[in-house]
Amino acid sequence: xxxxxxxxxxxxxxxxxxxxxxxxxxxxxxxxxxxxxxxxxxxxxxxxxxxxxxxxxxxxxxxxxxxxxxxxxxxxxxxxxxxxxxxxxxxxxxxxxxxxxxxxxxxxxxxxxxxxxxxxxxxxx
Length: 125
Prior knowledge:
Elements: H1 3-7, E1 10-12, H2 25-31, E2 36-44, E3 47-57, E4 68-74, E5 76-81, E6 85-89, E7 93-96, E8 102-117
Parallel strand pairs: 1-2
Antiparallel strand pairs: 2-3, 3-8, 4-7, 4-8, 5-6, 5-8
């Protein structure tokens, strides 16, 4: 991925909340103003829970060792695979298995929750 591609994303890998802290998802969504924001909210066992507020498209990538779960809070998420596209609406989710090449995109402002292993690189391997 080129430097220009990476700079269009705002990806915060620092864990924002510790156990027993309240996480106000609607407030975090309303405070997100960039076209592509990704926040590492908290850790649960060996996983990181992330909040994405996105509009536009991410680059093609895969994760060699980790599965990735996507859940749509509001909006519509498309997950392009090599041979098909998965469309997720509000309240729907999907697991993308490790080593599967994919690209996420949203034609309108969309809020998603992601769960993935702590070792995952959000931009792909």
